[in-house]
Amino acid sequence: MARGRRKNPAGGSALNSVVDKLKDLSYASPAYRLLLGGKTPDQLLIQPIDMLPGDAGRGSALLDNRYLFAGQEVTAPAGPRPGVSQDGPPWRHDGAGEVWYRELQSFEWLRDLQAVASQAARARARKLVLHWLDLHTAIDPRPWSSGLVGRRVAAWLSHGEFLLKDADGSFSKRYFQGLALQARHLSRTARSGEDGAERLLAIKGLLYSGLSLPEGERRAQQAIKLLESELTRQILPDGGHFERSPSAHLAVLRHLIDMRGSLIAAGKPSPEELNNAIDRMAPMLRAYRHGDGALALFNDSIEEEAWLVDLVLAQSGAKGRAQANGPHVGFRRVQAGRTLLISDQGAPAKYGRRVHAGSLSFELSAGKERLIVNCGPWQGGDATWRKALRATAAHSTLTVNDTNSCELFDDGSIGIGPNQIASWREDQEGAAWLEASHDGYLEPFGLTHQRRIYISPDGTNIRGEDSLTRADAANRGGRSFTVRFHLHPDVQTSLVQDGESVLLRPPSGNGWQMRAAGGVIGLNESVYAPDGFHRRRSEQVIITGPVEAEETMIKWVLRRIPKN
């Protein structure tokens, strides 16, 4: 896989890092804890909305002290632990990665215990809430990050009736004390927490606490004001979320719909900015879907479950068709016959920690079958795989000298990368031309990458051009190129015609033939991580060759072969 272009472990401003550390120290101090004191609420005014159904199978596993999150199961030993009043999950376990840790700490799995619908499940849920309160008396930065606190508060409140039914006074008091403390912390940190989707999660928890707990009107008003401000920043005019990740887009839309429903349940008006954001985001979510109903793999996105996408779209109430052009978020979608192409033609996101170096990559499906894909993300505990799957070489695009088109930092952000992204689309008599360029290789090699793709009206003929142009004749950096087309694992391949073309055959038997000019075509191994936690072996078509002195032109064509 491609290398990083420059090492910078900090991944951001040293000043910001110092400020964050000072904040963490202040939050952990006894004085700050005193500032969060106040009256303990004693009832829920409403139970806010959680649209997702629980999974009774995962709930049953929780009863057995098995914690299955993010594709990985961790079994905690039963029995009491030193200094802790009750047995419970490994709250500080690091071996399964950050996503697993955050899922555990979020308490969103309360919906799974509730789905079990038994007294044992209710008792287990209460025990785990108490266990968390026993262990997290100090406001440590990791479990108390504002986005994670927002998720936890929303979960405790959304399943409040489940937790409180037949509970004794001791549990109720501690439950409400814990909620009040976290809500007051959110009131101080939601605005300044991590940007992007994480900030919206903090706002959701703040809003839910304001709607559900007595004397929370000020927090509700604060949350609505913050929400309106963030929606103006984060939801672009074409409806795309500014992190440019289909999975993040799905999650943000789901949380916005939950917030709208909770406001209505509380008898509060839903802000116009919120309603407009939901209406704009739904067509863009449809644009990210392949023919199988799941999502394309750009910028740390996983396929997601088709039923979940269906549910969110249904709950949105928005009827708009899939957005064909997202000029602000930088994605184009072409549907021609049964063929669907989704192309990344935008600049890498400046916000969030989901950025992949996939400029000008695309994915292609025919009917319900995926043909050309990106490799997907790695969200497990192996940092090496996470770095590899963020690289340009893990995407269906061009690389120079096996180098990333932007710097990738370990914290998920980026450094130097494309500054100028140009994108055009032309539709004529049912055919479509897509054209885009980026200058991500200008700084290291003096090169600009341009990609043009033509899709015939019936979708059976796709022609592409990838070119590298020298911006500075004195810069002769960059000796070789590789154009990659990663294939879905279900696609079988073979080199034909003395190695001059590649035959692609998906399960349906409707084959495709790829030919190339301007480079040598071949096959290599690849991987596909559809859920971010399991890797499937696959293949990739590669076109390789030298970078020319002035301009390098690679042409390729993909034609469908009728089924015999």
Provide keyphrases for this structure.
alpha+beta; single chain; 564 residues; Beta-galactosidase, Chain A, domain 5; 9-stranded antiparallel sheet; 8-stranded antiparallel sheet
SS content category = alpha+beta
What form results from the Cα inertia axes? elongated
The major beta sheet can be summarized as: 9 strands, antiparallel
CATH secondary-structure class of the largest domain: Mainly Beta
CATH architecture term of the largest domain: Distorted Sandwich
What Rg is obtained from the alpha carbons, in whole angstroms? 25 Å
Low-confidence stretches: 1-15, 81-86
Q: In total, how many domains does the architecture comprise? A: 3
**What's the β-strand tally?**
19
Proportion of beta-strand residues = 15-25%
End-to-end C-alpha gap: 38 Å
CATH topology of the largest domain, by name, is Beta-galactosidase, Chain A, domain 5
Helix content: 25-40%
SSE order and pairing:
Elements: H1 14-27, H2 30-35, H3 56-63, E1 66-69, E2 72-75, H4 98-106, H5 110-116, H6 119-135, H7 146-158, H8 160-164, H9 169-189, H10 197-212, H11 217-234, H12 246-265, H13 272-287, H14 306-316, E3 325-326, E4 331-336, E5 339-344, E6 362-366, E7 369-373, H15 383-390, E8 398-400, E9 421-428, E10 431-438, H16 442-445, E11 447-455, E12 461-470, E13 480-487, E14 492-496, E15 501-505, E16 512-517, E17 520-528, E18 536-546, E19 551-560
Antiparallel strand pairs: 1-2, 3-4, 4-5, 5-6, 6-7, 7-13, 8-13, 9-10, 10-11, 11-12, 12-19, 13-18, 14-15, 15-16, 16-19, 17-18
Summarize the structure.
The chain has helices at 14-27, 30-35, 56-63, 98-106, 110-116, 119-135, 146-158, 160-164, 169-189, 197-212, 217-234, 246-265, 272-287, 306-316, 383-390, 442-445, and strands at residues 66-69, 72-75, 325-326, 331-336, 339-344, 362-366, 369-373, 398-400, 421-428, 431-438, 447-455, 461-470, 480-487, 492-496, 501-505, 512-517, 520-528, 536-546, 551-560. The chain has 564 residues and is of the alpha+beta class.
